[in-house]
Amino acid sequence: MSMDAIKMLQGKKILLGVSGSIAAYKAATLIRLLVKEGAEVKVVMTTAAAGFITPLTLATLSKNEVPLNISDHNSWNNHVMLGRWADVMLIAPASANTLAKMALGLCDNLLLAVYLSATCPVLFAPAMDEDMWHHPATRSNVDKLISFGHQQIPVESGELASGLFGEGRMAEPEQILTFLQQHFQQKNGRKALNGTTAIVTAGPTIEHIDPVRYISNHSSGKMGIAIAEALADAGANVQLVLGPTSQKTTHPGITVTHVQTAQEMFDAVTTRYPAAGIVVAAAAVADYRPANVADKKIKKGEAQLHIDLEKTPDILRSLGDNKGPQQLLVGFSLETNNEKEYALKKLRDKNLDLIVMNSLADTGAGFNYDTNKVTLFDKNGNERSFPLKSKQAVAQDIVSAIIELQHA
Ligand code: C5P
């Protein structure tokens, strides 16, 4: 975490709303982290939340009384004042029930009364079982809350209270902390990557055999696009060099250049490189291409057809060879065996600052999935493993690591 990010929460007034979900136990860690960062924390919780974690625990950690009911501690009179006191209201965990009531403007407990009268920005971290998370009612409630201008902290995938695995876990307290820091950084107009140009490569490349055939791979471009969006959210001016994919982005901070072949990607990246502070190479670039491209469709003939292949330019290696002192390079490593060894070798050989390792051996990770499970290795020898998460949440982790390296 950067020094700037650390200072962001000093003296900030955080109103934490805790609703009834097993993830309520994480509220204790979250409060502890916030207090350590110098924030003032006041907690309101629902009676359902008090079934998961005691008000006494949260009151002790936050150093403030925790009202539960509208009749507690003059709460009825105070609910408006609490909403006005806060710089931000964070609802974590936000259960399906609380989200639904917030979307409707219901006001049948203290947390909701405080929410409805809060004039400050609102962030919410949903937590529920996967089926509840995917239910159209929850989807439209979340959309509605976002349309109110509230910010949703992405859910994570993993083991759920039901014992099933899937999407719907509340983000980890450290992740929520990063979101709050970014929220205040943005509010100050001091986004961490303001004024930085970042190049992101994403998607596959296609290498033509003849006018109708090509060699390619299964990359969807989802991970790279998520990184481009996270970098742009952090204030970077992003140049996305995108291979052929149906995935799109409409983020205003991103300029997209469409390319097809490794050579076209190489050319597009190389011309933009001198102006870039950060390059993230998330594209699955073909390693070989046909040495000769037939100008007419190759006709069916002999029992066997041999196509000579030649190496494509290694874009990232060339960037590493020409890296300036202020430039930061991030690569990806996708292997099926000896993953760590190969990842570290690439980090060294290509002169990278950070490498993102993902393994095809992990279920839910890699091509075309909406989730990914990564380990980050940086040039200083740090290794960090993350659980299976949405590609958006993984992108956040990667961007946080980039910001951290920039400040190191
Ligand atoms: O060496 P390998 O292809 O496994 O390295 C993967 C990393 O290098 C990825 O970040 C990928 O985007 C980048 N790469 C590249 N140009 C190539 C091959 C890989 O930029 N021709």
Automatic annotation (TrEMBL):
CTP binds at residues 287, 297, 313-316, 332, 346, 350. GO terms for biological process: coenzyme A biosynthetic process; pantothenate catabolic process. Pathway: Cofactor biosynthesis; coenzyme A biosynthesis; CoA from (R)-pantothenate: step 3/5; Cofactor biosynthesis; coenzyme A biosynthesis; CoA from (R)-pantothenate: step 2/5. Keywords: Decarboxylase, Flavoprotein, FMN, Ligase, Lyase, Magnesium, Metal-binding, Multifunctional enzyme. Binds 1 FMN per subunit. Residues 198-408 are annotated as: Phosphopantothenate--cysteine ligase. Residues 193-404 form the DNA/pantothenate metabolism flavoprotein C-terminal domain. Its cofactor is FMN; Mg(2+). It comes from the Bacteria. One of its GO terms (cellular component) is phosphopantothenoylcysteine decarboxylase complex. Its EC number is 4.1.1.36, 6.3.2.5. InterPro entries: CoaB-like_sf, CoaBC, DNA/pantothenate-metab_flavo_C, Flavin_trans-like, Flavoprotein. It catalyses: (R)-4'-phosphopantothenate + L-cysteine + CTP = N-[(R)-4-phosphopantothenoyl]-L-cysteine + CMP + diphosphate + H(+); N-[(R)-4-phosphopantothenoyl]-L-cysteine + H(+) = (R)-4'-phosphopantetheine + CO2. Residues 12-183 form the Flavoprotein domain. GO terms for molecular function: FMN binding; metal ion binding; phosphopantothenate--cysteine ligase activity; phosphopantothenoylcysteine decarboxylase activity. Residues 1-197 are annotated as: Phosphopantothenoylcysteine decarboxylase. PANTHER family: HOMO-OLIGOMERIC FLAVIN CONTAINING CYS DECARBOXYLASE FAMILY, PHOSPHOPANTOTHENOYLCYSTEINE DECARBOXYLASE. HAMAP family: CoaBC (MF_02225). Catalyzes two sequential steps in the biosynthesis of coenzyme A. In the first step cysteine is conjugated to 4'-phosphopantothenate to form 4-phosphopantothenoylcysteine. In the second step the latter compound is decarboxylated to form 4'-phosphopantotheine. In the N-terminal section; belongs to the HFCD (homo-oligomeric flavin containing Cys decarboxylase) superfamily. This is Coenzyme A biosynthesis bifunctional protein CoaBC. It comes from Chitinophaga ginsengisegetis. The gene is coaBC.
